[in-house]
Each structure stands twice: as structure tokens, then as C-alpha cells.
Amino acid sequence: MTLHHALIRTHHITSRKKVASLRKAAGKYGCFALLRSGGCPGIMYCKGSEEGVKEWLSTVQRLRYKDFFLASKPAAVQLELCPKGTSTPQVEDPAGLVEVETVGEFHAAMEKRGISAWWRRAMEFA
């Protein structure tokens, strides 16, 4: 199965009720979701099957987050190459939702997954 992923930016993620809905949707659709919650900016990353990612994104849209912006549409995951020419090992992420408090922690999670350049482009940092 080819894994797909998507990235969303919002003004903020503070509603615990909405986060609970996203956690439930991640389990239902078999996706891994990573949220930068608690303040501005709100960042959401989702990885799973193509259909699962699309369904999870639909859930996010229905929650009507302020300043919702789909920074990267669902696409197949392309791992970056390390300096030695090998792919960065992909992290096995179980279905579910994980929250981080800072953009730095979010970036570290993207580096760990071998997709930091993709993330920086999508966030318009690069």
C-alpha cells in the first residue's frame, strides 16, 4: 500500500472537543495524525491510505477551523535522500493522533519521518 499524506495550516487549534473529533476520525480511517495545538499557528499532518487521508481531511473541513488552508493536498509520501544517497528510514506510525506544543517539535517530527524539506516547502518556510 502506498502511503499518502497532507498538511493543513489553521489560525489555531485550541478546542478540546474538536481535537477529540479528530482523534476519533484518525482511528476510524486508520490514519496517523500529528497536531501542533494550543496556539498560533495550528498545524495538522495526516498520513495513511489515500482514501483514509481524504476522509480525515473532510472531517477537518467540517469542523470549520478559522483560516483553514490546505498547505499540501493528499499526495504519495516521497522520502528525502540522506547525504549518503539512502532514503531516510520511515517511522512506523500507528493510527491515532499525537499532539505537540511547539512548531519546533512539529519540525523535529517531520525530520524524523524523512519529510522535513516537503514540510518546509508546504509551510512556505523554504
Structural class: alpha+beta
Low-confidence stretches: none
Distance between the ends: 30 Å
**Helical content (DSSP H or I, runs of 4+):** 25-40%
Global Rg: 14 Å
The strand line-up of the biggest sheet is 4-1-3-2-5
Per DSSP, what share of the residues sits in E-state strands of 2 or more residues? 25-35%
Shape: globular
H/E order of the elements?
EHEEHEEHH
CATH class: Alpha Beta
Described by strand count, sense and barrel closure, the largest sheet is:
5 strands, mixed
Mean pLDDT: 90
Remind me, CATH topology?
A: Alpha-Beta Plaits
Q: Count the DSSP helices.
A: 4
Work out the number of β strands: 5
Structure description:
By secondary structure, the chain is an alpha+beta fold. It has one domain: Alpha-Beta Plaits, CATH 3.30.70. It has 4 helices and 5 strands, in the order βαββαββαα. Helix 3 crosses helix 4. The chain starts with a strand and ends with a helix.
What descriptors fit this protein?
126 residues, Alpha-Beta Plaits, 25% strand
Give a short overview.
By secondary structure, the protein is α+β, with helices and mostly antiparallel strands. It contains four helices and five strands.
List the helices and strands and how they pair.
Layout (H helix, E strand, L loop, with lengths): L3 E7 L5 H13 L3 E5 L5 E7 L1 H13 L6 E8 L19 E5 L2 H10 L3 H7 L4
Parallel strand pairs: 2-5
Antiparallel strand pairs: 1-3, 1-4, 2-3
